[in-house]
């Protein structure tokens, strides 16, 4: 039997799957079916944020988080808690739910991040912006020249976690969603308490990801200042050493699990072998 924050799990906890950017809930259907085959009594909730994949790009993460809260808390089967699995941008939305709402909404019991930009995203000087190749040139210009403009924040989701290592003063002055969750502007003790309320946090990242830059962001690493070729590991970053939101406490308590894969970005949600052998075991909760 698993005890967690006063809750007792007497059966397999349900799971909530959260899709990434330029996707909708249908992107998680393969994973949903495979998970249900592996764990027959598993209840799977796929949260579709907004109307179609366009809103996953052209709305702020604060707005998308509101949609996630509605999706989760309108389902009574999640009321006793759930395992949260966020893919790509969905992992950062799951982190927002955990830190901002876990003390008052249906609680996340276990956090699984799958190639998520948990420490931010930046590319384009020494690194390659693969995910931008399909966007028109004017949108590329928007990202690099008005990255902290209010219009950009309100109408382009990546602005919520775009962390330019060459322009950190602007980030610390004008950043929103990620800066807030990292407790780097105004310290919110509830965020830290909520972050540490899960039994464990499993973070998957891949050197072959091709989308998340740097790929170590999936495990709370990020570019060094004035570089997008050299990376600080999770343990080397200030937010870890100062334990601003509980990451150090969680890690030193053995509750951060880091897993490296060889998957490219989309392979994570469609590769049956990976889902069965590497992902599903972390979804199975202890049962009496």
TrEMBL record:
Main location as per UniProt: other
Taxonomy, superkingdom: Eukaryota
Keywords for the protein's UniProt record, in alphabetical order: Disulfide bond, Glycoprotein, Hydrolase, Lysosome, Signal
Catalytic reaction list: S-hexadecanoyl-N-acetylcysteamine + H2O = N-acetylcysteamine + hexadecanoate + H(+)
Subcellular location field: Lysosome
SUPFAM superfamilies: alpha/beta-Hydrolases
EC code(s) of this entry: 3.1.2.2
GO cellular component labels: lysosome
Gene Ontology MF terms in the entry: palmitoyl hydrolase activity; thiolester hydrolase activity
Function in brief: Catalyzes the cleavage of thioester bonds from S-palmitoyl-CoA or S-palmitoyl-N-acetylcysteamine (unbranched structures) but does not have activity against palmitoylcysteine or palmitoylated proteins, branched structures or bulky head groups. Conversely, hydrolyzes both long and short chain fatty acyl-CoA substrate.
Record-given protein name: palmitoyl-CoA hydrolase
Organism per entry: Hexamita inflata
Highest classification ranks of the organism: Eukaryota, Metamonada, Diplomonadida, Hexamitidae, Hexamitinae
